[in-house]
Amino acid sequence: MSSPALNVAINGATGRMGVRLIQLIQADPGLRLAAALDRPDHPKLGEDAGTLCGLGPLGVPLSGALVGPVDVAIDFSLPVGALAMAKACAEQGVPMVVGTTGFDPEQRKIMEEASAKIALLISPNLSRAVNLLMRLAGEAARALGDSADIEIVERHHHFKKDAPSGTALRLAEIVGNAVGSSQFVHGRQGDVGERPRGEIGIHALRTGDNPGEHTVVFGLMGECLELSHRALNRDGFALGALDAAKFLAGKPPRLYTMADLLG
């Protein structure tokens, strides 16, 4: 006998990622859309989430509150929305996957406190390939040490509200830890002088409908190593989020990472 489908709630259900997640849930027999949420003042509240996603009626209305039997929640909203969702999930004992970015340090701290009550996975990027890029970038930084000039370039669609991307910041943190540097420079302008040893440059491009590109450049004298990931659409992120939801369901309360999923 097959296992019952996993009941999934999507917060940020009318956003680009939310819509794609709902479409992919419908294509996966092991998953069921149990709740579709968005901000409490959303003009489409009460309308069928399937219709809003172009699938036809699913019998799941767009809601501003978490209700009904839910096994795991996925959040792709905004920091304020993610904080409200974490509070609701903690109160109801629902594991939560968070792909939202742009948290300030205090918001991040509040988010992580929910892991005392629920299984919580927060990642700036839920793509398996991007998380492999992070691992490889760390290995390259450790191998090359401070002999390389490290620069990170990210490119996203012009709708993205935060910059640099959470993924770029995480990449900077990883390579910075590997070489013992926290000298992050966000772009350069004017007579900045010779590039100091240990500096890590981070550059954000916003163009068209680009779903996301990240490149870590290790510049040496006479040669250069570049590690890159290019998203062709949002499916890599969405499928990674669904993998994370399947992994997290039924897990004990604590803070998880994509490294736990990838092993």
TrEMBL record:
One GO CC term on file: cytosol
InterPro entries in the record: DapB_C, DapB_N, DapB_N_CS, DHDPR_bac, NAD(P)-bd_dom_sf
Active site, renumbered: 156 (proton donor/acceptor), 160 (proton donor)
CDD domains per UniProt: DHDPR_N
Keywords: Amino-acid biosynthesis, Cytoplasm, Diaminopimelate biosynthesis, Lysine biosynthesis, NAD, NADP, Oxidoreductase
Superkingdom of the organism of origin: Bacteria
Residue sites binding NAD(+) per the record: 12-17, 38, 99-101, 123-126
Dihydrodipicolinate reductase N-terminal domain: residues covered: 7-125
Pathway: Amino-acid biosynthesis; L-lysine biosynthesis via DAP pathway; (S)-tetrahydrodipicolinate from L-aspartate: step 4/4
NCBIfam families: dapB (TIGR00036)
Self-association state and partner proteins as the record states: Homotetramer.
Protein name: 4-hydroxy-tetrahydrodipicolinate reductase
Organism per entry: Singulisphaera acidiphila (strain ATCC BAA-1392 / DSM 18658 / VKM B-2454 / MOB10)
